[in-house]
Design goal:
The structure is a single chain. The protein has one domain (2-83). With 85 residues, the protein is an alpha/beta fold. The longest helix has 20 residues, at 52-71. Helices cover 45% and strands 12% of the residues. Strands 1-2-3 form a 3-stranded parallel beta sheet, with helices on both faces.
Length: 85
Amino acid sequence: MHDGIAFEERQIPTAVLATEVFLNAARIQAQALGMPGFTVISVPHPVQNLTPEEVRQRADLVIEAVVQKLTSHARSREGWTVCRR
């Protein structure tokens, strides 16, 4: 979160992904870092025990949100957004 917000503050598009169980922690950290509207892309939990093929399948679920986040020129510091597919 910290790195993603630091890049965004420097106008460098960033896509931060977090599993569902860490979304609340991500929101709290974004608020503490002064960017409550920072978008976090949610992926299903857990990921640590996945095979490479299963990781690719998870990536396929969020690739459009990642591309949109990285190519969008709009930055919002208000409201919390979670991209889910």
